[in-house]
Amino acid sequence: MSTNQPPSLLDNSTFLTSFAEQKLLENFLRGTKLMKVIEDKTEQFINKYTASKKPEDARAPIVLDLTLHYKDLKERSQTLLCFLTFEPIEFLDSAKYLIYSLIKTIVKDSSNTILKTLHCEQVHVRFRFMGLPLEEGLVYDITPNSYPGGLAVLVCVLCAYTEPEFYTIQSIWYCTTGCQTNLIKKEVTKAPNCYNCARPMSEYSALRCMGKYRLLKVFPIRSVSTPRVFNKIFRSQIVHLKGKIFKKKKTNTY
Hints:
Elements: H1 7-10, H2 18-30, H3 34-52, E1 62-69, H4 70-76, H5 78-86, H6 88-109, E2 123-130, E3 139-140, E4 153-154, E5 156-161, E6 165-174, E7 183-185, E8 202-203, E9 209-220, E10 237-242
Parallel strand pairs: 1-2, 3-4
Antiparallel strand pairs: 5-9, 6-7, 6-8, 6-9, 9-10
Helix pairs in contact: 2-6, 3-6, 5-6
């Protein structure tokens, strides 16, 4: 393992409690511009509901696109950086509940007293992590049946990509008999059943929130190395990119 890697980044032996994780992240958010993004999105949500007073607008999604920079995390909290790098799934879970609590506080402290409830399912946080260094242990080499356990840099050759496709961020469902309150779901393959009467629920199709994604087909960088490699097959891998991550440049690189 490379010795020029910061020891605290590669040392994932420190396990934090959920409260400690959220406290570190809260301090980081409040010390950066990300807190302003959360406040602005929440104010937009409140103002829209205040203007319309429609019940469906009270269940509208709050979609937050937050960019995290490696340099900022390294300077402010090595512990948080280590947690994000090695446990990204747990980081996302902690971040969602923390940001949900922050949004609830903003709604409660606002002058709007009409909005009474806010569900955690309405909050959708999408992180984009930038600046992860090209160092041993963090670079993912495409090999059969090998997948990174945490965040990794993928150095590859782009072979093909799809046109933008859509996925469901949030959908709202209601019971036609009126015995169940609105149900908020993410991606669903079939209509959910009402918890009371067990009948299939109907969707407010006009309130469906959609996002875009692309599929990339990539090959390992070794497939174009010099000198050329003969009598060897390099397997491709499919990469799923959501949101605004995919950007095409004039040089045809991504």
